[in-house]
Structures are given as C-alpha cells and as structure tokens.
Write a structure and sequence with these properties.
- The chain is α+β, with helices and mostly antiparallel strands and 443 residues long.
- The protein folds into 2 domains: 123 residues, Hotdog Thioesterase (Thiol Ester Dehydrase, Chain A); 271 residues, 3-Layer(aba) Sandwich (Aminopeptidase).
- Helix 5 packs parallel to helix 6, helix 6 packs across helix 11 and helix 10 packs antiparallel against helix 11.
- The chain binds zinc ion (ZN).
- Zinc ion binds next to loops.
- Its cofactor is Zn(2+).
Length: 443
C-alpha cells in the first residue's frame, strides 16, 4: 500500500497478518528533537501505522478504519538505532477496535500505546436509533474477547488471557528499592516468594524495630490487587513518613505489595487468573494470599487494627468485571463506579464509629463517594456516609485474615478528574493514621 508519510520518515511495515503487525524505523538525524532524542511523534507514528496495519486484514470488503484516539506512554529515550513496533488487536467490536502497540529499541520496551479505531463502511448511513441499539448490544455481547459467553474458561482461555498480559512497570524499581531505603530504620523481611515461569518475586514485609510482645499489632496491607497503585505507594509512604510516630505504642507490620506480578501487569488477578482477594481462606489457590496468611498467623489474635488499602477504578467496570464474567461464564450486569473514597466494614463485626473517624479524616484530602440513586455504593447499601459492609471472612477477603478489633478496607478512586496520584497516596496514609489514632483511643 502506498504510504507517503511512512516513506518520508523511513518507516517500514515489516509484516502484517490478521490482528498482528510489526513495523520498524531507523532513527536518523532528521528524526531527533533538539536534545538529540528521537521525537515522540516518531514512536507515535510507529504505533499509529502498526495499528492500521494490524487491523486492515480484519476488515470486510468495502470497510475502512480510522483512528479515534491513541494514548502512548514513553518509558525511555531513544537516541539511535533501529526501533521496532509490535501491534496486536485486543478487542474487536462491531464499530470500534482496540489495539495495543509495544515499541522496542533493541530488547528494551521504550513505549507502549493503546488505541481505538473506528471501522465503518463509507456511504452506509443508518438510522441512529438502530445504531444506538446495536451499540448497547455490543456492550454486552462483545464485552470480553476471550471464551464463549455462558461457558467458564478452561486452560486454553486462561492461557490466552495470560498471553495478553504484559509487564508495564517494575516491582523492583518501584517497590523493592523503596523498601531497601527503609531498611536502616525498620526490620525488613522476606515472607515468601512467587515463582511464575522464569520470573521470581520476593514477597516483602516491614516491621517496627524493637518489636514488643506486650504491644498491640497494627497490620497494613497494600497491593492485594496489584493494579491499585495508591494502596502500594500509600503503604510505603505511611511507613516512611509516619511509622516512627507510633514507636512504643504499637507494633507495625506492613505488607505493601501483596501481589507483585499483578502490580507489574496493572491487573487484578495473578497469572492463574485468580483474584487473591477472594482467596484468603484455607487451602488458598493463590500463593499471594497463602503467603500473607502464613506471615500473619502468629499475630492473628494480637492485632488491634488491620487496614487493607485498595482502589476502585474505572477499569473495574470496563475491564475487570467483564473479564470476571467471561472467566466464570456468567452474564455481565453493568454497574456504576462510585465517584470518590469509600470504606468497606465487616458486616460480621461492624465498627461504625471507627469507620466514621477514618471517613472524616480522609475527607480533608479527597472527596467521599456519594451513594447512587438507589442509596448504594458499588451495588451495596450505604450503611453510613461512605461506608458499605461485606462479610469479610465469608468472601475470603484480605481484611478478614486477623481477629483485629478494628478492620477496614479503603477504596480510593484514582480516576476522578478531581484527584492526583499524590492525593490518592495521601488519602491512604491519612486513613491508616486515623485508624491507628482511633484504635489507640478506644482499645
Ligand atoms: Zn482492590
């Protein structure tokens, strides 16, 4: 196909097949910015061209495609050499196709792009009501690209799901190195190890120095859902900035990133397509959960507080709930995502005053989610402002792993235009401090 722009910058499409393409470009002097780095638009052009090339073979006769939007993350500068781009179709809808491009300089992933393309037949005009009806049907029938609707996944579907997951950030850089920097001030221990294929993840916990058996224990857990970023960084920030305020009053045990593989993939599940946060029970199928339960077993009955740090994100509705319905062969019932912070109390041991103290403290940092028109948050009745209840232990949730008098799960909402990542971390930190403060006043 004639592509004058590709020719102008020297971009080559190396291969195309249905749903996959590779293209490449040699970085020459004319493609550099004033800092002698390849201009971001060059990598963008690779993604855009690669997406078109991957999609073309899938189009019906007479059908065309056009870019609606592409989001790109740049990870590292490129100075020279050959840059290659591998693009895959992620989801094929009737009118919108989602694609992903990974851009490499040598072996190194330097950028990643996610794009939506419209597919359409020029000249074909349809009644708008009909179009809307089709769109809403697509939303259900094409909710998830893996498996057969109504049939739970088998090994093959799980493998296909796994093949679509890619490493997007580094546990070592973001988490382990931060824990290393805390080592002079705290006791750091490895409480387990996850071995997934060729990858191995040490599971790390941080403890108060001079642990005293006569003091109550405060347990803080984060990253049970690896993609819930502020849970991980909020836990680490709490240790760094506030843990020392409680010396001599409580023993702190902090597991900041319970599910590191999922942290790197920005996903909810482990590589076996299992949600660790439904797996905190005996004979757990998730090693993430089993390892944490072993760590916590000795303090199970001495814990005063357990606060488990989470987020509720827009991707819960767009990606993870559809994936869950597909995995279990169940119909997807669309729901809403609460706009703001909320807490999950234990319906088997509710502590409304404790939850209220946390909500009041967090409100200084970020907005509290209002209930929806049915008086619910995420499908559960709002029992007090910003609070819902789950039977924690019955559901195998992390916040139920101790017999702590005070238990809660935070749910920060990072996708609000009204918050920044720093505010999300701060909300988690404030919640932890408020929880400890309340519990120490009401032991
Ligand atoms: Zn979560």
């Amino acid at each position: 196909m004639k592509h004058p722009f590709a020719k102008l910058i020297g971009l080559e499409v190396d291969s195309t097949e249905a749903g996959v393409s590779t293209c490449s470009i040699a970085i020459t002097e004319t493609l550099l910015n004033p800092h002698k780095v390849a201009h971001g638009a060059v990598l963008y052009a690779l993604a855009d061209t690669g997406m078109g090339a991957a999609l073309y073979p899938l189009l019906a006769e007479g059908e065309l495609c056009a870019t609606i939007e592409i989001k790109i993350n740049y990870y590292a500068p490129v100075y020279e050499g050959q840059v290659s781009c591998v693009t895959r179709v992620i989801n094929t809808g009737k009118s919108v196709v989602n694609l992903e491009s990974e851009i490499f300089s040598g072996e190194r992933l330097v950028a990643k792009a996610n794009g939506n393309y419209a597919r359409f037949t020029p000249g074909a005009r349809r009644d708008q009501t009909q179009q809307r009806k089709e769109n809403s049907m697509n939303a259900v029938s094409e909710a998830y690209p893996i498996g057969t609707p109504g049939t739970p996944w088998g090994d093959e579907e799980r493998a296909e799901w796994l093949s679509r997951q890619s490493r997007q950030r580094s546990y070592e850089t973001d988490v382990l190195s931060v824990i290393e920097r805390l080592r002079p001030r705290f006791d750091v221990e490895q409480y387990g190890r996850l071995d997934y294929g060729s990858e191995s993840y040490p599971l790390m916990a941080i403890r108060s120095r001079n642990w005293r058996d006569d003091l109550p224990v405060v347990l803080v857990t984060g990253g049970v859902h690896g993609y819930e970023t502020s849970g991980v960084h909020g836990a680490l920030q709490f240790v760094d900035q506030h843990a020392e305020e409680y010396v001599g009053r409580v023993n702190l045990l902090v597991a900041p990133c319970v599910s590191p593989w999922a942290y790197e993939r920005i996903h909810r599940w482990n590589p076996n397509a299992i949600d660790p946060n439904r797996s905190f029970h005996e004979d757990s199928p998730a090693e993430e959960s089993a390892a944490l339960m072993r760590l916590v077993a000795p303090i199970r009955d001495h814990a005063l507080v357990h606060i488990d740090l989470h987020e509720t994100t827009d991707t819960d509705e767009s990606e993870f709930r559809p994936a869950l319905a597909a995995r279990d062969g169940k119909p997807l019932e669309p729901g809403g995502i609460p706009d703001g912070f909320y807490l999950v109390d234990d319906s088997e041991n509710p502590r409304p005053e404790f939850q209220r103290a946390i909500i009041e403290a967090v409100e200084a940092v970020t907005h509290i989610a209002p209930a929806d028109a049915n008086g619910e948050l995420i499908g559960s009745p709002e029992v007090a402002r910003g609070v819902i209840q789950y039977p924690l232990r019955q559901l195998g949730l992390c916040a139920g792993i101790t017999n702590a008098s005070y238990r809660t799960t935070t749910e920060v909402y990072p996708d609000s235009p009204r918050v920044t990542p720093a505010q999300c971390n701060a909300a988690q930190v404030v919640a932890v401090c408020a929880a400890i403060r309340y519990a120490l006043k009401h032991p």
